[in-house]
Protein 1
Amino acid sequence: MGRYLLRRLINHVALVLIAASLTYFLAAISLNPRANFAGRNPPVAASSVTATLNDYNLNPDTPVVVRFAHWANGVAHGDLGRTVTGGEVNDEFARRVGVSTRLLLIATILGSIGGVLVGAWGAIRQYRTSDRVTTLASFFVLAMPVFVIAVTFKLWAIDINDAVGHKVIEYTGEYDPGLTGTGEILLSRLQHLLLPSLTLIVIQVALYSRYQRSTMLDVLGSDFLRTARAKGLSRRAALMKHGLRTAVLPVVPLLVYNVVLLFTGATFTEKIYGWHGMGEWLVNSISTNDVNAVAAVGMFTAFVVLIAGLLSDVLYAALDPRVRVR
Amino acid sequence: MAVQTPSVQPPSQAPAAPGDQPARRRASGRLRLTAVRFSRNRMALFGLVMLVLLFLMAYVSPLFYKWDYTELDFTAFQKPPSGEHWFGTDQTGSDLFALTARGMQKSLVIGILTGLICTFVAAAVGAGAGYFGGWTDRSLMWVVDLLLVMPSFLIIAVLSPLFQGTTWLVFVVLLAAFSWMITGRVVRSMTLTLKDREFVKAAKYMGVPAPVIIFRHILPSMASMLIIDGTIQVGAAIIGETSLSYFGFGVQSPDVSLGTVIATGTPAAPSFPWLFYFPAGCLVLICLSIAFIGDGLRDALDPNSSGAKARAPRTAKSTSTEGRTS
């Protein structure tokens, strides 16, 4: 088991390194940072543009391999390079991971719990109205691209704000920078958190409840649950202690996998609600031809996939005795 | 696993046809049975009718609708829906119904093409890896792992400047290139079990070349899975296409897709909500009807795989590709 895991780990790390390098190559070939300086007023001299780009290791005229070597050397020493505006990618990276964490923490917890509960509830009440409604609702949500959900929520929030007369629900940014006083800042943060969290929660509940419902349905027909009832447990106790606990196990690794992936996956939510997190960086770095930032996001995404995969494998082994024994 | 005795099985769950019947009769009987089962599923039937109507709207309605999607009506700017302009007009006086129909044409074509290519690649690679085994298997699965780690959204977005000004077919290829891996893995594991079956061995010892065995004996045996998966991939591709196009990374400007129509409508949507709700509503209806059809096909073709068994392990790792970027 140990050697198997180690071999997989080495293989995965190699994959991440290759994925990151490929991302860098593609970004370096495809994006043109020089375009950022075109159309400036007053116009910037070509020589000074070249000098700046050389400085940041972004000059498209330098052979890609040379740029890559420079970049890879920096990454090996923990330096992700400079952004197209001259900042350190490292600083931006740290800031954005913080923003994404603050956005995702509450949303993923509530979304996971909600998904498990809704799914289990639907399974227990299979084919009744409540089950049909939740199933239909989750189909509906999953059929919507995230940007449609996010924009719809935003439009509703605007309508509600108009109806109330002042801004109750905020829909841009993380907080209001003009405020002072702990209470006010906290309230403002909560106001800003509401819509993006709601978007993420709705999506997660819809997704996870589908899995939870089907695993729960499998468990409901099982012999051990009948035994539990036969030995005199109440329906409720049997369902909670024997049913749900067993049915949650296969869903947990999946949940963890998805939650970890959200770190760069919350692109649309962050972009539409103006949160400056990792997901927004993904879109912005491409539109500003920011090669080093794109490479950083790409590497982080590959890394996150790796962590998510390993974590869900380990959890699977830890939670399911049958896997552990093998 | 509980062993099911035939007497407990409800009649609808009985296998499609006993294996010892003549092949011709089994095929036609199977088809009819599938059709009957499908039409008994009200949601699936609703999805099919809906999708046909949407296809008619996209391809037939422009033939007799008064406005062309390139025409501008200088007497109607930002006008709400009316008899003259069914979905209203935007700030330049373009008719939104004509634009939406045009966008749907492209989105539907992209979705179907991507679904087809992706299913074909998954079938060919998965079956090849499973059938030949050894180094073929190892290297192909390594490619699958690598593509799974690569951030697909980021890569396609990064490459978008390169296919600007070329054809949108490049975009289709890219979308397909990043969505076949999970299906490929499933095909591979199904091939591994089919490889040892008598009919495959018989063909092999009679000297039938490997490609023929794969395409004539192995892949038809998993046709139902491929059909179901292909349907789901079409929906996923449409969501992926519109999401990328929404940020300007997908379909480029002379072409119109639902994503670009929604993206141009969104900024003005708070004051002129029809610019967002109509095209977004059409998009949701397309994806919803495809999801219903896929679900109905699963029930009809593969009645023993109750959601969980067929889906949970597969989607456990699919999320990175499936593009559930929130």
Protein 2
Amino acid sequence: MSGVPLEKPGRAADASQPAIAVRNLHKSFGHNEVLKGIDFFVDPGQVVCVIGPSGSGKSTLLRCVNRLEEPTSGEVLIEGIDICDPETDLDDVRSRIGMVFQQFNLFPHLSVLKNLTLAQRTVRGRGKEEAVQVARANLAKVGLSDKESAYPAHLSGGQQQRVAIARALSMDPDMMLFDEPTSALDPELVGDVLSVMKDLAAEGMTMMVVTHEMGFAREVGDKLVFMDGGVVVEEGVPAEVLSNPQHERTQAFLSKVL
Amino acid sequence: MKRTTKRRLVVWGVNLGVLAAVVAALLLIDWSAFRANFWSPDGVAGGDSNWGDLITIGAVNTVKYTAIAFAGGLAFAVVLSLMRLSPIATLRWLATAYVEFFRGLPALLVILFMGFGLPIAIGWNPPGGVVGAGLLALIMVASAYMAETLRAGIQAVPKGQTEAARSLGMGATSTTFRVVLPQAFRIVIPPLTNEFVLLIKDTALLSVIGSTFTGRELTTVARDFTSSGVSAGTATSLVQAALLYLVITIPLTQLVAWQERRQRKATR
């Protein structure tokens, strides 16, 4: 299993607080209750994978973590900070949570380099030179140094997703959220993205990954959470949950996808 | 008969018919009378021809007024469109009322109101004189249309773009101005060009409120030449003005079409 270090080098994360703590989270869209009381934790340096059938609420849970969705009730704490507290500077908290979307969501009107520098400059207040330097370092990390002047439309899906990861990393986030990052990719492009994510995990990045990639969950994840019908049905060490699921809903789901 | 043969015959039939009609018209027209009324020699050539004033006063002012009305209208339209999409109901309601109001009125009426009604009613001295008041009217009307165009453009930008920007910690304002609006503008370039061309033509409405001699736009200059000058009593100056309008509008629509193609190549 992955020997993930608990402390990240060079970052003063408060190790006594969970990176993400979700308590009794409810979320309804109209009369449709999508999350029915979720308790969910990610410790600093941990990689937590969330699996489950479509409509299980796993993406909604992830989107509540940086409040792209407004929780109906319950508590979401990021490094101990309540993100629903009106006193909280939500933009500041968000800038420390990298997010990677299923549909990449790169800014199509900006070059790759500008995609990576825009938020650094407007949010982090970095000068142009520093922002470009950080951007280039992160592009190199995802293996796309030669694409900095390309526009997103000229990149393959896998390249776009790696740029999206580099964009999130350029903010020097404390943690990363991945919302089905490989689901929109052609099968032959999935590997490149997963290997970038593996490298990140190996560096000790705190990660919450909603995914259908069971291989990734088994190999890289420290914890696997299975959701169905808006509740956490089962969670544990990935290899154990995957090979010996305790709950019959988990068994039924895994028998279909494995 | 094969279908392609039949189709070819129909096409040729149509072509021949059109050609026959054109030839007949050319033969039947009384060319000297036609020329005297629409292309009077004194009006179109020589040192005293209409071209001088038509171009240096009329066309120049038309372009100037259009630019002012478009820039003003667009700036106001950005505000209006953002108000229409605001989470604050009062702002939405205000913008909707404004847009519905000015889209429902003839531009000519608004120009007359601003040019003659308002200055007298409230003792207002419009900047730039009566023409200034007329331009303000054009801005008010144009912004209502452009606001709707822009709103559609903003709504056409995928929600994921806003989410990506916000998830990076960007605030609502920088998300709007750095991420959403640049993409919205790109989407609405074709309909905005349309607004621009409509506006060029709407500046002709300013001819109803009068202006200084050198402040006249193209249609006013042309109209004045129908009753005075070397081609008075003929429609020559109107034909000349028509040509000048086309010289302005056609390159413009072509330029934007070209830009659009180039941009699509770059970003898609």
